[in-house]
C-alpha cells in the first residue's frame, strides 16, 4: 500500500487533503503541533481504520531536525506532502520570526527525507501565488514562469515579508534539489486566495484562514457600510487545491514542475452578490446592491493551463465555493 506523510495536518488546505488521500486509498500519516490536534483529526475520521490514518507530533517545524523522526516509518513513506508553514501571531523581527522559519521549515524537511527516508519518490510543497506575483509591475500574463522579484533587503518590510517568505522558501526547495540531487523530485502548488468550506472539527471563527476571513466579515456585517478593497483579484477553491496536491503525487509527469492553481478573477463585490443570492436571510448584513466593484477593467491575464492539462483540474465556480463557505461558517457560529 502507498504511504504518504502530510505535514501541517490541521491546516485549512491539509484538512481537505486528508479526505482526498483517504478517498484515493493512501495510508496517511499527518504531522500536527499537539496531541490534541492529532486526536481531533482521528475523532473526525472515526470510521477510518487506524492503520490508514495516524499522526505524529512535530511541535516546531522550524527547529533543526524537527522532521528527522517524523519521516522514519515502517513500512516506509512513498511520498510527502509538505503544507506546514511556521505560525506566528506577532512578527517583531521579520528575519527571525518569518523568513528564517519559512526557509528552514522547507529545507529542513527535505534534508530529513534525504537523510532518513530514501524510499520517498516525490515531495509536493504548498507554495503560493505570493512567490509568483510582482505587485509593483504586473506582467501581461501570469504563469508558472513568473517569480516574485522581491529582494532580501525589501523582505524586511513588514508589508512584504509574507510574500517574501513564500518566495524564498520555494526557491530554497528548488535549489536544494538542484544541488543535493536527492532520490526524490519535487512539485510545488501555487494558489492565490483560497476560499472554501472550513472543516468544523478544527476551526473557530477566529482561527479561519486569511482568505475566508473576508467572507466571515461580510456575513457578520463588517462591510455593510462599505466593501473593503479586494486586494488580490485571483482565487481558487480549497478542494481544488487539495486535489492538486494529491494529483501531483499520482501523476508521474507532475514531478519537477510548479503549478499555478487558480480558478480566475473575483472581487469582494462578487462575493457579496453571491451571498445575497445564496443566503437571502443575510440581506440585512450586506452592503447596498449598487455598491461598486473594484475589479480593474484592464487586469493582467492568467495562464493556468498546466494545472488543467497535467493535473486534470476542473475548477469550481465562485458561486458554489462562496455558498459552501458561508454554510460552513454559519455552522461554526458566524
From TrEMBL:
<dbReference type="InterPro" id="IPR050425">
    <property type="entry name" value="NAD(P)_dehydrat-like"/>
</dbReference>
<dbReference type="InterPro" id="IPR001509">
    <property type="entry name" value="Epimerase_deHydtase"/>
</dbReference>
<dbReference type="GO" id="GO:0016616">
    <property type="term" value="F:oxidoreductase activity, acting on the CH-OH group of donors, NAD or NADP as acceptor"/>
</dbReference>
<dbReference type="InterPro" id="IPR036291">
    <property type="entry name" value="NAD(P)-bd_dom_sf"/>
</dbReference>
<comment type="similarity">
    <text>Belongs to the NAD(P)-dependent epimerase/dehydratase family. Dihydroflavonol-4-reductase subfamily.</text>
</comment>
<keyword id="KW-0560">Oxidoreductase</keyword>
<feature type="domain" description="NAD-dependent epimerase/dehydratase">
    <location>
        <begin position="4"/>
        <end position="255"/>
    </location>
</feature>
<protein>
    <recommendedName>
        <fullName>NAD-dependent epimerase/dehydratase domain-containing protein</fullName>
    </recommendedName>
</protein>
<dbReference type="Pfam" id="PF01370">
    <property type="entry name" value="Epimerase"/>
</dbReference>
Amino acid at each position: 500500500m502507498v504511504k504518504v506523510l502530510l505535514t501541517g495536518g490541521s491546516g485549512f488546505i491539509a484538512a481537505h487533503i486528508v479526505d482526498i488521500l483517504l478517498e484515493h486509498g493512501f495510508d496517511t500519516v499527518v504531522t500536527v503541533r499537539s496531541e490534541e490536534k492529532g486526536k481531533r483529526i482521528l475523532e473526525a475520521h472515526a470510521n477510518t481504520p487506524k492503520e490508514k490514518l495516524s499522526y505524529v507530533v512535530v511541535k516546531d517545524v522550524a527547529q533543526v531536525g524537527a522532521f528527522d523522526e517524523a519521516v522514519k516509518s515502517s513500512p516506509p513513506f512513498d511520498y510527502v506532502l509538505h503544507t506546514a508553514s511556521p505560525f506566528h501571531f506577532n512578527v517583531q523581527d521579520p528575519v527571525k520570526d518569518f523568513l528564517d522559519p519559512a526557509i528552514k521549515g522547507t529545507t529542513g524537511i527535505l534534508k530529513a527525507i534525504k537523510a532518513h527516508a530514501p524510499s520517498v519518490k516525490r515531495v509536493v510543497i504548498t507554495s503560493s501565488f505570493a512567490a509568483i506575483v510582482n505587485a509593483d509591475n504586473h506582467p501581461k500574463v501570469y504563469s508558472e514562469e513568473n517569480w516574485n522579484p522581491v529582494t532580501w533587503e525589501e523582505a524586511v518590510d513588514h508589508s512584504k515579508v509574507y510574500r517574501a517568505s513564500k518566495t524564498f522558501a520555494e526557491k530554497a526547495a528548488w535549489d536544494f534539489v538542484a544541488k543535493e540531487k536527492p532520490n526524490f523530485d519535487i512539485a510545488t502548488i501555487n494558489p492565490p486566495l483560497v476560499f472554501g468550506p472550513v472543516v468544523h472539527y478544527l476551526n473557530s471563527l477566529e482561527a479561519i484562514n486569511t482568505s475566508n476571513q473576508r467572507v466571515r466579515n461580510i456575513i457578520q456585517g463588517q462591510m455593510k457600510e462599505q466593501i473593503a478593497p479586494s486586494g488580490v483579484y485571483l482565487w481558487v477553491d480549497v478542494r481544488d487545491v487539495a486535489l492538486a496536491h494529491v494529483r501531483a503525487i499520482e501523476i508521474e509527469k507532475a514531478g519537477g514542475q510548479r503549478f499555478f492553481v487558480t480558478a480566475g478573477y473575483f472581487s469582494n463585490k462578487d462575493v457579496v452578490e453571491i451571498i445575497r443570492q445564496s443566503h437571502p436571510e443575510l440581506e440585512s448584513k450586506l452592503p447596498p446592491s449598487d455598491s461598486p466593484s473594484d475589479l480593474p477593467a484592464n487586469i493582467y491575464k492568467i495562464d493556468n493551463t498546466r494545472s488543467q492539462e497535467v493535473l486534470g483540474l476542473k475548477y469550481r465556480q465562485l458561486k458554489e465555493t462562496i455558498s459552501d463557505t458561508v454554510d460552513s461558517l454559519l455552522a461554526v457560529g458566524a
